[in-house]
Design a protein that fits this description.
This protein is of the alpha+beta class and 366 residues long. It is 38% helix and 18% strand. The radius of gyration is 21 Å and the shape is globular.
């Protein structure tokens, strides 16, 4: 029988279920503890989810059981859970994503056993304009996060040539992720070719350790610089999100000095944090990823990069070739799919009425 508990959070009523259910069998970490973690980390987590379409990775049977990604918000949800329709070119319809801007919504999401939170790189209001450029450094065994740390420094050095500041975090799994905040007008047609070009450049400079091709056969003992996450249809695990590993590890922002220590000590276990440890770390250091929310940086035009003189001739050619090919592919793809369908006046009126009704309900709750 399903056990439930009704709680009130910021004036919203939630029914929490099966709080004693163990979701991490190796440690006995329960669903109630998952929710408690997300409540306590909310002050630093919510700003990174704000106004971004959220994909939930749900593990109703725990980390050792089947999971599924959920993009479309469940039909049976509280009327105060905010959603936003985003046109899906693949499905030829709107997908109603959850927007987790407040604590009640975050708790509701956690109660669905959504252990992992995967927000878009864009805000819902401008889904084709990424606010962040991201590189996912994924080691192919026997490579580990130690090799990722070396690649991270090579990548940082190249980005600095272009005047771009970057911020590292561990994935909470086995690799590193490098974030480049933008918050200036751009598009995936610019960020994805740029990221691909950087990956190709690293691969050509360090073929013994770096690969930019997704084929698993090529990744043994190397680090994949995954540039493909820079796409409006893809997501990257959020900073401060739990991961569905054996233990309740968390995707944690790091300082570059810590990445350097991982590299020097060659210890993959350094700076791996479980939920309780991460809460203590945030109490001490605050949100190391706060600049990612605010820092405005303009991605340089590839033409500017190639004429800057910062790169060697062969490097400029490598960037130009990879970037031009990727840009052409994305342009053809965009042309084939065409614009999203126009929103009818009646649909707009209906949406407006729904929003007004929701506001009225929220006022009555207060």
């Amino acid at each position: 029988m399903e056990k439930s508990t009704v709680v009130d959070i910021e004036g919203k009523h939630l029914k929490l279920t099966n709080l004693d259910k163990v979701l991490y069998p190796a440690t006995g970490f329960t669903k109630g503890q998952v929710i408690d973690y997300y409540v306590r980390i909310a002050p630093v987590l919510l700003p990174h989810l704000k106004d971004k379409p959220l994909t939930m990775k749900r593990y109703p049977g725990g980390v050792n059981a089947e999971f599924f990604f959920e993009k479309n918000a469940p039909k049976h949800r509280p009327d105060w859970v905010k959603t936003v329709p985003i046109w899906s070119y693949g499905n030829k319809r709107d997908v109603n994503y959850v927007i987790a801007n407040d604590l009640p919504t975050l708790v509701w999401v956690a109660n669905l056993a959504s252990l992992e939170l995967h927000p878009s790189l864009s805000l819902a209001k401008d889904i084709q304009c990424p606010t962040i450029l991201v590189f996912d450094l994924d080691p192919g065994p026997p490579a580990t996060i130690v090799e990722c740390a070396q690649v991270a420094f090579w990548l940082r050095d190249i980005l600095e040539l272009f005047g771009l500041e970057s911020f590292p975090k561990n994935s909470g799994s086995k690799g590193l992720q490098i974030y480049v905040p933008l918050h200036t007008p751009t598009s995936y047609e610019e960020t994805k070719p740029f990221a691909h070009a950087m990956a190709r450049l690293l691969e050509e400079e360090h073929p013994e350790l770096v690969v930019s091709d997704m084929k698993k056969a090529l990744r043994t003992g190397k680090v994949l610089v995954d540039w493909s996450q820079n796409d409006e249809h893809k997501t990257t695990v959020s900073v401060y999100s739990l991961r569905a590993r054996e233990r309740q590890t968390v995707s944690t922002p790091l300082r570059w000095e810590e990445v350097e220590k991982i590299l020097k000590k060659k210890d993959p276990s350094l700076f791996v944090f479980e939920a309780g440890q991460l809460l203590e770390r945030v109490d001490k250091l605050g949100d190391l990823f706060e600049p990612v929310l605010k820092l405005k940086q303009k991605l340089p035009k590839l033409a500017d990069l190639l004429s800057s003189g910062a790169l060697k001739e062969n490097e400029r050619e490598s960037i130009a070739t990879a970037a031009e090919r990727r840009a052409q592919e994305m342009a053809r793809k965009a042309e084939r799919r065409g614009p999203p369908p126009a929103v009818s006046a009646s649909a707009t009126s209906s949406a407006r009425k729904t929003t007004q009704s929701a506001r009225a309900r929220r006022k009555s709750i207060r």
